[in-house]
Amino acid sequence: MEVVVLADADEVARVAADRVVAAIRRRRSAVVGLATGSSPLGIYARLAGLVEAGGLDVTQVTGFALDEYVGLPADHPESYASVIRRTVTGPLGLDPARVHVPDGGAADLAAAAEAYERAIAAAGGVDVQILGIGANGHIGFNEPTSSLSSRTRVKTLAPRTRADNARFFATPDEVPTHCLTQGLGTILEARELVLVAHGETKAEAVAAAVEGPLGSMCPASVLQLHPRAGVYVDEAAASRLRLVEYYRHTWAHKPEWQRS
After folding, report:
1. CA 82 to CA 78: how far, in whole Å?
2. Residue 145 and residue 250: Cα distance in Å, rounded?
């Protein structure tokens, strides 16, 4: 796992976006895993800027969202289908037919989860997966105690996750209690993982994921198993890391040919 400590959220977005751009330039038909939440927004804004300036071709890119609420209509402003359209598909000019989100409104949610797994496989797998991290260590909606080999499935959201997401809804009671999420095993099959975090509220989770033991109590710790996982954090999110000076040293001395 590569851990990169940067000055602020803007730098986190810039460096993480560079890695996503490199994956797309290596393969014009790249499959990109899309996370929602506030942390990845800077990445998407930078990608959109490159597309608008003519510096990045995403016409053949395919996207797969990590998760979706169960029970929200797809046109609800806080459904992840709507969020992805608003923050990714539209700004980047992606082909909407190439952008996929789990069907949280399906009559048979288990079948919808299996179909999503098949769709990812049929696309050739995810080339680069963008990730945020929850304050309790979740990635996607894989809450603590999720199986490290789990696949796309229905999950019950933890009270802390619902409380954290209540800011997007008129009242806390409107936050759904269930979701469809890619599993930790599904996420680990991506060829590259790019996790971004900023702010003091994420510091404990980042430290547990990077330096804590591998285990289901911190789902993001599965990144320790991946050969090409990058964790990009600002100074506040890095404040609980014991080896923070080492991470700064390794980034400062990283050869240019290894930076993409």
Report:
1. 6
2. 32
Tokens of residue 7, six digits: 């000055």
CB contact at 8 A, 6 and 12: yes
* Total number of residues shown for the chain: 260
CA-atom Rg of the chain in angstroms: 17
213: number of Cβ within 10 Å: 9
pLDDT in tens, 145-154: 999 999 999 9
- Write out the catalytic residue numbers: 67, 136, 138, 143
**Under DSSP, is residue 231 helix (H, G, I), strand (E, B) or coil?**
strand
pTM of the model: 0.96
**What are the Cα distances from residue 101, in Å, to 34, 35, 88, 113, 239?**
9, 11, 12, 11, 34
CA-to-CA distance for 104 and 75, rounded, in angstroms? Answer: 12
Scan for tokens 């330039």, then name that residue: 25
